[in-house]
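Much of our argument rests on the idea that a fold can be written as discrete symbols. In the encoding step, the backbone of a single protein was reduced to a row of integers, each denoting a local shape. We regard such an encoding as a compact summary of how the chain folds. The record that follows shows the chain in one-letter code together with its fold in token form:
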Amino acid sequence: MRVEGSRVMVLGCGGMLGSSVRRHLVSIGCDVHASDIDVNEDWLTYLDVRQYESVRVAADEFRPDLVINLAALTDLEACERDHFGSWRTNSLGAENCGLVANGHGVPYVYISTAGVFGGEQEFYTDYDAPRPLSAYARSKHWGESWTLRSSKEGYVFRAGWMMGGGPRKDKKFINKLVRQLVAGKDVLHVVDDKLGTPTYTEDFARGIVRVVSAGVPGLYNQVCGGSGSRYDVALKVVEGLGLRDTVSVVRVDSDHFKEEYFAPRPASEKLVNLKLDTLGLNVMRDWETCLEEYLEEFRPLFAK
């Protein structure tokens, strides 16, 4: 389909990825219906993906050409505490949005995660078998499996360690580090036994449009080039903010944070964009390049 100028329904659009997706869609002339259960922008409307009838009515009124489901409960510890909540949002929500897309005969996009793998290998392609370890990962794996099995035209994009959204919306690793630095912390303890692939929301949004426009449904790993440990990323953040001479980054293992981050996580979540590369559809840049660009959003926080 031609995404440019189309009518796109984006659910769960209030978070760090949603802001990038909406911005890119608007820039290419799309009419965007953006919704979330957290109405934190004036361009958002309230919609709960767990409520099928609400999603159906909204879609019937808007008449989308494309449905993109970004709604997710991504806090791994919260998912471990509330398995049912995780299933309702990440699995049932996926079904509800997909059924509505099917009813309108339009493509459906679902976002999954590198966390569906078990960590036995260092790298995973689009074709490696998932082995989810946590409640979060199991619920996301169900969502992607349903999309691939039951959507008339389904697209699943697996993200890695997401970065984007800026100081206000980023709930992930980069902003957690930056908040510590802004507060004056000069020693950061960061794990070096968890490996993965950072994923910039701006590139990810462009990638969704590129693949859907190509009309090749299916499952795609979509992460930035390169990989590393959490420790490697933290070093680049400190260096990128010009704090290398004043801040120390100390290696620790995951046991250092075992009480706070108790949900099981794979040792490696490194993804390879095999299908995107083979099809010539990969728009994802190297993660260090993307991080350098992203850190510009945080520099004003350090202005004196």
